[in-house]
Design brief:
The structure holds 3 protein chains of 3 kinds.
Chain A (H helix, E strand, L loop, with lengths): L2 H29 L6 H26 L7 H19 L3 H25 L4 H20 L4 E2 L2 H8 L1 E2 L2 E2 H19 L1 H11 L1 H6 L4 H27 L1 E2 L7 H11 L11 H21 L7 H26 L8
Antiparallel strand pairs in A: 1-4, 2-3
Helix pairs in contact in A: 1-12, 1-13, 2-7, 2-10, 2-11, 2-12, 3-4, 3-5, 3-10, 4-5, 4-10, 6-10, 7-8, 7-10, 8-10, 11-12, 11-13
Chain B lengths: L1 H6 L3 H13 L9 H26 L7 H16 L12 H26 L4 H20 L9 H8 L1 H21 L1 H11 L1 H6 L4 H27 L10 H12 L10 H20 L4 H29 L1
Helix pairs in contact in B: 2-13, 3-8, 3-9, 3-11, 3-12, 3-13, 4-5, 4-6, 4-11, 5-6, 5-11, 7-8, 7-11, 8-9, 9-11, 12-13, 12-14, 13-14
Chain C lengths: L2 E12 L2 E12 L3 E5 L6 H8 L7 E6 L2 E3 L4 H6 L2 E4 L11 H6 L14 H15 L14 H14 L4 E5 L7 H16 L3 E5 L3 H7 L2 E6 L2 E7 L5 H9 L11 H4 L9 E10 L3 E9 L3 E5 L6 H9 L6 E6 L2 E2 L5 H6 L2 E4 L3 H5 L6 H6 L16 H15 L16 H13 L5 E5 L7 H16 L3 E6 L2 H7 L2 E6 L2 E7 L5 H9 L6
Parallel strand pairs in C: 3-8, 3-9, 6-7, 7-8, 13-18, 13-19, 16-17, 17-18
Antiparallel strand pairs in C: 1-2, 1-4, 4-5, 9-10, 11-12, 11-14, 14-15, 19-20
Helix pairs in contact in C: 4-5, 8-18, 14-15
Classes of the chains: A mainly alpha, B mainly alpha, C alpha/beta.
């Protein structure tokens, strides 16, 4: 392939995730007109907001070529603690939300300590904290389900200017994350670290403290996402947040974030990825499809997205190859 | 002294024995016949599963889908063999044919993972993550999330009868051990994990060997499913849902590296024994499930810290 | 005029091998120093000491009148020293502007927001300076290699340094970009910036520098105003015979009449890959050591990679012992008796954490395995490993199970060579087989090369060290910018002619 055609192929692969998104939406719209009604689309957004928030934090971690397998456990711990505080201590719901977020931050700080300071591999360190977090959460809840008071669940059904609370929160998180990543020195240095941590350190970037900050951010997002999901569901079950880490990774990767770091965006990438996953589920619902088929179709689409991304990466490498002759 | 202990590759095995002896005074039941039989019965399939994971980790890959493969194999076997509605119901060949079918499921899934990783050059983590999601979805879809009972007694004996189960597990783990140490394929697996570029230049058929690693992992996962399903005498789409973390934890505690090139079946045996002993003794000490989970997490972190310290010590020396 | 920078008696050894010997050199403020020398003459080491990546064994630097010992690249940069390297150190996923200002992004007061307009304006200023017409927001991955080089130069300039070092800055530039770069250099010189210019293009060095310094084998063999030099004199200085390396002599050379060439083993015709090599044709005979000389980036390693089947080529034929090779793949080449020792020992040659025995056995493992089961004959394998350890004279103190990374560079290279020799190859492609190893090990490797050739193998020896090729080869091919430009028989070996062919003023094509 000559370089011009390679560049064209590159552009095509760049926009492929968006095309995939459009095709899926249009497909469902054609099969079931009610799918595209504004009320339903808003519904999709409401359903996906918790995942969007958690996946936003995950995107930060993936951008540094790390991974956080503990977000689901963090959500669970946060939910368990808030359940206790609401039911046994009768705390004000807003105070509880603040507490949950802070708790998520502390968990993230712990991950950052293990990874950035003690030099553990992110995969193993967060696998370990996932175990600890799950165990701690189950100890708190005594593996029983807790139903939360209406004062708390009302937070999720609040609307501001017609926008449902969860969507508003998710939008604010996405906006903040997008601005941090694209408009602040910290954000740009995160991209540099993910591309090549050694080169970034040589260029004068403080890699350690940036990494620690990234895991704290991921923890904060997990806590907040847990709070939103909790308010929507209204009860803490032992499976709360289970496998959320995989959903978050899938959303980010579906949106074009690379597992090898340095590539990806919260907006539009991760948001679209999360909404796409939820949209597929909702669309299949509208078609009255066999609900047992959902995971099969979702994983098929994620597989496709990963395939496109790895093709893009291989093309990238051939483009970057040094040339010896001018021809 | 400390250095030699840290350096010993069988450190974990010693730790397992030491903790067994140390725990005995607190829980005399630990050494009871009944308990040991139980311990071994649950340890064997986990060992098979972890051996498959070890093969993949040695190539610097990972197989997150192993437990979903188990679930699919289990329900496919159940659908084929159960005495009420099974396709093979009543046939004298139900058990052997069912086992073969289950193993075939493992091979198909493994081949899919392997092709995506080796031929399409997709990242193993994402590939096996999607097959994990698809596999567990498929298992639930096939059974409408029901459990399947009434399996042939001959089949149940494979997992439930200690001597039989032990023979199968020892044969498979021993096979994996010999494969890694005494065969061409084994050496090639290590070479790819150490340095895939170098292996390619040195004439190692990297694509085929990587594919083989995933196929073997799928096959061993299906074999583990045979034992688990037989043990429970039911085929369940939820089989192995909580095992993924145990499997990875066991291999990593044993000393197998996530970066490839380092790993042994004996190490994995030690890791599996460690995890299972932990489970069992904490259970006997009346610890709750959540305490056990927390302790497991702490042990994984401790193992990782130990490894990081060991690496730092060795580097400081070099 | 005062000296901005002085090197005083700088000496540096790697594993006992001297790479810099007592170099004393001054760079006056506002002048340009042209630094020339063959590959491995010590230019990079000298610049690495200046950049804080290495420390001299003896001697010191004087920067701006004060002793200067940078602890790292950051300290050198803070002192006002900027580098433009041959290898690109850019982040392809970031924009041009972000690459320029990664750790100095302009912010809104104390807020963490980037002032994007100001960032773009500053970037545009430096891009205009280097003559790159691209928007500051363009991701670097969208740029060609030449454009990336210009970004690298812009980054160095944006630090507003007091001294800037250009290391082969024009190798990946197009002719137009090169002209613009030379204009830029004259502008910078007129502005009084101090520069060090390192290049193999001697005419450029003579045109752009005030002062020229020539390094050979780590020693300063000549320096003075550029008017004292011309290209011919520079070449003479660069190639003077080095004394510290002995080369074994082949029996066939002692005969009065040159031996007739053996049968053709490897016949390459019109090998072409756009952007890499063009119309490469040559024949390697049995029993012949054929040298391939060229400067860095001439396409030598790329050619070898194609011959072994690691990289594709668009046109051309390769015949092995008369048989045309259709699709070339490493494992097939290996089975046909071709071996390839790559230039990057650590990345392509060894599994550093694996044992010596496993590394040695890897290539020939298949021969010791049962055809269908793959069961290994461990005793036979151990015998083979023992035999090859003796043949390459690997240090006897290292156990077979020891990880290769615990060996010295020379012994590591013997392991790589040994694993290929075990395969008993007919054709050996050796890419820089003696890079970075000590004198004794070098001599032993030279002997092994001759021994293989005496046994009837054909050896293609790629080296940046001209001396080495002259000492070892029956014939030398010279490569420049992906083309073979000269061929010399042993009787005609002429250092100046070879170097002139390899250096030749850049063609306008």
């Amino acid at each position: 392939m000559n370089p011009e055609r390679q560049r064209l192929a590159m552009r095509a692969l760049d926009v492929a995730p968006l095309v995939l998104f459009a095709v899926v939406l249009a497909g469902f719209g054609a099969l079931s007109p009610s799918f595209l009604l504004p009320a339903n689309l808003l519904n999709v957004l409401v359903q996906s907001s918790a995942t969007v928030i958690v996946a936003t934090g995950m995107t930060f971690v993936l951008l540094t070529a790390g991974v956080d397998l503990s977000v689901g456990a963090i959500m669970f711990v946060a939910a368990a603690v808030s359940g206790k505080l609401l039911l046994a201590q009768g705390w004000n719901p807003w105070l509880v939300v603040a507490g949950i977020i802070a708790l998520g931050g502390v968990c993230g700080w712990l991950n950052g300590l293990l990874i950035a300071r003690l030099g553990l591999i992110a995969f193993i360190a967060t696998l370990g904290t996932q175990y600890v977090g799950r165990g701690f959460g189950m100890w708190l809840t005594e593996t029983r389900a807790m139903n939360l008071p209406e004062t708390f669940t009302r937070l999720a059904s609040n609307r501001l200017a017609g926008v449902p609370g969860p969507v508003l929160v998710a939008a604010l998180v996405v906006l903040a994350a997008h601005l941090v990543l694209q408009r602040t020195p910290l954000g740009r240095q995160i991209y540099a670290i993910g591309q090549d941590a050694v080169a970034a350190r040589k260029a004068g970037v403080n890699v350690r403290s940036t990494l620690r900050g990234v895991y704290v951010l991921c923890g904060l997002c997990a806590g907040l996402g847990g709070a939103v999901a909790l308010a929507q569901i209204g009860s803490v079950a032992p499976t709360f947040g289970a496998n959320k880490e995989f959903a978050a990774i899938a959303a980010a990767v579906l949106g074009g974030t690379s597992l090898f770091g340095g590539r990806g965006r919260v907006w539009p990438g991760t948001v679209f990825g999360a909404v796409l996953i939820q949209g597929i589920e909702n669309g299949l619902n509208h078609l009255n499809a066999d609900p047992y088929l959902y995971p099969l179709i979702t994983s098929g689409i994620i597989f496709l997205a990963v395939l496109l991304d790895s093709g893009r990466g291989q093309l990238q490498r051939t483009l970057g190859r040094r040339r010896i002759r001018p021809d | 002294m400390l250095r030699r202990a840290l350096d010993s590759e069988y450190l974990v095995l010693w730790l397992v024995l030491a903790s067994f002896v140390a725990l005995l005074p607190f829980t005399p039941d630990l050494a009871s016949r009944q308990n040991l039989v139980n311990l071994l019965l649950t340890l064997l399939p986990l060992l098979i599963l972890a051996c498959g994971q070890t093969l993949v980790l040695i190539t610097a890959g990972i197989d997150l889908s192993a437990c979903s493969i188990m679930a699919v194999a289990s329900v496919v076997g159940g659908l084929a063999m159960n005495g009420d509605t099974g396709w093979l119901a009543g046939s004298p060949w139900a058990a052997p044919a069912g086992v073969l079918l289950m193993l075939a499921v493992g091979v198909v899934f493994g081949a899919f993972n392997g092709l995506a990783v080796a031929v399409l050059r997709m990242p193993p983590f994402m590939v096996t993550l999607t097959t994990m999601m698809a596999g567990s979805g498929l298992a639930i879809w096939l059974t409408r999330s029901e459990t399947i009972y009434n399996l042939p007694p001959a089949f149940n004996a494979l997992g439930g009868h200690l001597a039989l189960a032990a023979m199968i597990a020892v044969a498979l783990a021993g096979g994996a051990h010999l494969l890694l140490n005494r065969t061409l394929l084994g050496r090639w697996l290590y070479a790819i994990g150490h340095n895939a570029r170098m292996a390619h230049i040195s004439g190692v058929p990297v694509t085929g060997v990587t594919l083989a690693a995933y196929v073997l992992s799928g096959l061993l996962a299906a074999a583990a499913a045979v034992l688990y399903t037989g043990q429970a005498e039911t085929a369940s789409p939820l089989l192995g849902q909580r095992l993924l973390l145990d499997v990875i934890a066991a291999t990593v505690i044993g000393g197998t590296s996530l970066f490839g090139g380092r790993g042994k079946v004996l190490w994995t045996l030690a890791g599996v024994a460690f995890i299972k002993l932990l489970d069992n003794s904490l259970n006997l000490l009346n610890c709750s499930f959540f305490t056990i989970t927390m302790v497991k997490g702490a042990v994984v972190l401790a193992a990782a810290l130990l490894d990081a310290t060991r690496r730092r010590l060795l580097e400081a020396e070099a | 005029m005062s000296a901005l920078l002085q090197f005083e008696g700088i000496t540096k050894r790697f594993a006992g091998v001297p790479v810099l010997r007592d170099v004393t050199l001054a760079v006056e403020t506002g002048t340009t120093l042209g630094l020339v020398g063959e590959n491995g003459a010590g230019k990079s080491t000298l610049m690495n000491i200046l950049g804080g990546n290495l420390r001299p064994d003896t001697g010191r630097l004087i920067w701006d009148g004060r002793p200067f010992a940078p602890a790292g690249p950051a300290e050198a940069a803070a002192a006002g020293i900027a580098f433009v390297h041959q290898e690109l150190n850019l982040f392809p996923n970031l924009s041009i502007a972000e690459n320029l200002f990664l750790t100095r992004l302009p912010r809104r007061g104390r807020l963490p927001w980037i002032r994007r307009r100001e960032l773009a304006a500053q970037t545009r200023r430096w891009l205009r300076e280097v003559g790159l017409e691209a928007a500051p927001e363009t991701p670097v991955e969208r740029l060609s290699a030449g454009e990336r080089q210009l970004v690298e130069i812009a980054r160095a300039l944006s630090l507003e340094p007091r001294l800037i070092i250009f290391d082969e800055p024009t190798t990946s530039l197009s002719d137009r970009e090169t002209r613009q770069f030379f204009e830029l250099m004259s502008r910078l010189r007129a502005r009084g910036l101090t520069m060090i210019y390192i290049s193999h293009t001697l005419e450029d060095v003579l045109r752009l520098s005030d002062l020229v310094a020539v390094l050979r084998d780590g020693a300063l063999v000549g320096h003075g105003p550029r008017t004292d030099f011309d290209a011919a004199r520079l070449i003479t200085l660069m190639v003077g015979r080095s004394l510290n390396q002995l080369y074994p002599s082949r029996a066939s050379w002692a005969q009065p009449a040159p031996a007739p060439p053996g049968t053709p083993l490897l016949e390459v015709r019109d090998l072409t890959q756009p952007g890499v090599v063009r119309d490469v044709s040559f024949t390697l005979h049995a029993g012949e050591v054929l040298g391939l000389f060229g400067l860095m980036g001439a396409g030598r390693s790329e050619l070898a990679r194609m011959l072994f089947g690691l990289d594709p080529f668009a046109r051309g034929t390769v015949r092995l012992a008369g048989q045309p090779l259709r699709s070339i793949k490493p494992d097939r080449s290996l089975r046909c008796g071709v071996a390839f020792l790559t230039e990057d020992r650590r990345e392509d040659g060894l599994a550093l954490e694996a044992s010596i025995a496993d590394n040695l056995a890897l290539v020939t493992l298949r021969r010791h395995a049962h055809r269908s089961t793959g069961w290994l004959d461990l005793a036979g394998l151990a015998d083979a490993v023992r035999a090859v350890r003796a043949a390459v004279r690997l240090t006897p103190t290292a156990r077979d199970e020891a990880p290769v990374q615990t060996l010295s560079g020379g012994n590591q290279q013997k392991v790589v060579l040994g694993k290929w020799l075990l395969a008993d190859p007919r054709v050996l492609l050796l890419d820089e087989p003696t890079r970075g190893i000590d004198v004794g090990a070098k001599f032993e490797i030279y002997q092994l090369i001759h021994k293989r050739a005496d046994a009837g193998a054909g050896v293609l020896l790629i080296s940046s060290e001209l001396e080495e090729l002259i000492g070892l080869c029956d014939r030398i091919l010279v490569m420049r910018r992906g083309e073979l430009v000269d061929e010399l028989r042993r009787a005609d070996f002429d250092r100046e002619r070879i170097l002139r062919a390899a250096l030749h003023e850049r063609s306008t094509a």
